[in-house]
Design goal:
Elements lengths: L1 E10 L6 E5 L1 E2 L2 E2 L6 E3 L6 H13 L2 E15 L2 E14 L9 E5 L1 H6 L4 H6 L15 H4 L14 E12 L5 E6 L9 E2 L2 E3 L6 H13 L4 E17 L5 E14 L16 E7 L11 H7 L4 H6 L2
Parallel strand pairs: 1-7, 9-14
Antiparallel strand pairs: 1-5, 2-8, 3-4, 6-7, 9-10, 9-12, 10-11, 10-15, 13-14
Length: 305
């Protein structure tokens, strides 16, 4: 199994048309594609979206907030993709030689052959978009990185889905990273890697349950963050050039119970617990929690529970 991370730009004009690309083979036009593609190792997805839209369409764009994270699993390759809102910031280059780009009415794109990422952009049902795989975690989790060539450090890349989880009382649900893992001992957002064939939304729901025992309702995509650790050392015992991308969602638990780890595989979470907001200042928090608390209001989230 192979895992990839991609970034795409949803670019619309003042008339609501979407900027799409397609290749022409002879007299036949291929399917419509959302401009974007696979990100480079260590590259922030937002920056990648701007670069890739430019490479595929010739337009310089300003990339805004992430709209959604989706996945496609096909022929042993699972692609996690972030779709960003973007606006045109410059005219196409005169010597551009990329794919044929066109402003397309959404109804036309929907009626003609198109990629699953166009379906996600247009909010269309599409069986090619990954849902949830009913398999044991150990059967679907990615394999360790292959041995690096001589003189190069092994590379690892992971796409995870995490939740800022609140209950009606305004408490936040956190999971503690087990010792021996990067960040061991710190309190982290419940979540983890997206399994093969699983959507990011399904993944965060599953991970919240495995790490805390809570049945959560997953809400909006709040943010997408990324990091690179060139010498990360985990349970494997050897250093990795590690690149992580996190999709962070809001989530609520209408009927909370005492948090407990129920995960059947893994072991990266030592304990989980509900915390009052005023207790967070005294806790060792992960960078992901710190970042999340800057973009979410726990009181407003609690009102949704």
């Amino acid at each position: 199994m192979q895992f990839r991370i991609a970034a795409y730009g949803e670019v619309r004009d003042e008339n609501g048309r979407v900027l799409l690309t397609r290749r022409t083979r002879g007299r036949e036009a291929g399917p419509w594609h959302l401009p974007g593609g696979v990100i480079d190792h260590g590259e922030p997805p937002k920056r990648a979206a701007g670069r890739l839209v430019g490479e595929h369409t010739g337009y310089e764009v300003a990339v805004d907030a992430p709209l959604e994270a989706v996945a496609v699993a096909r022929r042993g390759v699972h692609t996690n993709a972030i779709i960003y809102a973007a606006t045109v910031a410059g005219s196409p280059g005169g010597d551009f030689e990329g794919d044929a780009a066109e402003w397309v009415e959404p109804a036309r794109a929907a009626a003609e052959s198109h990629s699953p990422f166009v379906s996600a952009c247009l909010h269309l049902a599409d069986d090619r978009l990954a849902g949830r795989v009913d398999k044991a975690p150990q059967e679907t989790r990615p394999v360790p990185p292959a041995k690096a060539k001589k003189g190069r450090r092994r590379r690892g890349q992971r796409f995870g889905a995490y939740g800022v989880v609140a209950d009606g009382a305004g408490r936040i649900l956190l999971a503690r990273i087990a010792e021996g893992y990067p960040g061991g001992g710190t309190w982290h957002l419940p979540g983890g890697g997206v399994d093969f064939g699983e959507s990011p939304r399904a993944a965060v729901s599953r991970e919240i349950y495995e790490e805390t025992g809570q049945e959560a309702l997953v809400g909006e995509l709040l943010n997408v963050t990324s990091f690179r650790h060139r010498r990360a050392i985990g349970p494997e015992g050897y250093p990795l050039d590690w690149h992580g991308v996190r999709a962070i969602y809001s989530a609520t638990v209408p009927d909370p119970s005492a948090a407990q780890v129920v995960e059947a595989a893994g072991g990266s979470t030592s304990e989980s617990r509900w915390w009052d907001a005023d207790a967070l200042d005294d806790l060792p928090l992960s960078a992901a929690v710190e970042d999340a608390l800057q973009v979410v209001d726990l009181k407003n989230l609690a009102a949704q529970a």
